[in-house]
Amino acid sequence: DLQICQHRAPTCCTKKMEESYQAAVRRERTQSIQALNFELKYMIVGHITAFQEAFESLLRFAENRTSSLFETAYRPMAKEAAEPVKELFTDISLYILGAETTVESAVLRFFDSLFPLVYSRLINPGITDLSEDYTECLRLTRQDINPFGHYSKNMVTELSKSLWASRMLSQALSLGIEVINTTEHAALTKECSRALVRMQYCPHCQGLTLIRPCVGYCLNVMRGCLASVAELDVHWREYISTLEYLANEMAASHDLETALSGMWSSINEAILHAQLNGPQLSATVDKVCGQPRQQEGNLSAAHVVPVKEVAAVQTFVMAHASLNNKRREFINYMKRSRTFYASVAERLCDGDLVMRDSSTCWNGEDVV
């Protein structure tokens, strides 16, 4: 009653043993593909972590630099500006990780929150009544009167370019892991599991426990079983090319490090622009939002304090170098894996599975 290992000679197998063999080949095939995938998956997962750590390091540096700008140059509003600054960098971090948000909405939300503070602490430092309604009116007015000039739009443009490539690379790496995981758990067809039993275990039914499959026979069986996996080859090659393109974009015109390290300077220029145009802004705001309660006495507007470029700190230099090195190392490794899905059958038939240096092997029917 054997279904797979049918042979003219007497046999030491039963139908139940054949079923056990089918379960064994399914398990072995999954394990062997997992072993092949392990290095590739390990490399991608390692780089997802490394990239994210480098991104976070750069973001923390840029956030600290922006916070210190307020603490040194704009002390009257430093405490209240802390929350909008934190929100801005949280939004940027979420965007890089693939959240449904945009750089433009994050930056403009920041400037919306910043304008009431700049207006009431720097342009008109005598304002005492900053009610919710008045603050909201100032936030909405910011969109119409554009107190920060072209600086807010420039910041959106600069950051959008550099963060886009980082976001895409982050998503592409996660997609790579998904693809690898899917191939590990691709179901074996009935024909494939029978072919694998015939190749690996039918000799056992003849008492030939040491004989192994012929190389050509193994390749034919594995290529048939892995036809759907081999179809990924052309797409995997395209995927590697895309990773290379994104890494080059990150390193070239879309340089993330430069954009993040320059954020404090853009915010400083925007605030200076608003202060220099203080009288015109006050006249417009008074018409739209009304005049708030002022403190008695003649309080002059806070002095415009231009901030000099501070030397980049060691942590930033290290994070910058680390990100560049990781990017290069990762792309070089991935380029070597271009043919990964085209050569799965060859790699599975390598090593202990087949007979290489012997004159006899199993061809599916007999010893040859």
TrEMBL record:
Signal peptide: none
Cross-referenced PROSITE patterns: GLYPICAN
Any GO BP: positive regulation of canonical Wnt signaling pathway
Main location: membrane
Localization (cell): Cell membrane
Family, as annotated: Belongs to the glypican family.
Function text: Cell surface proteoglycan.
Name the UniProt record assigns to this protein: GPC5 protein
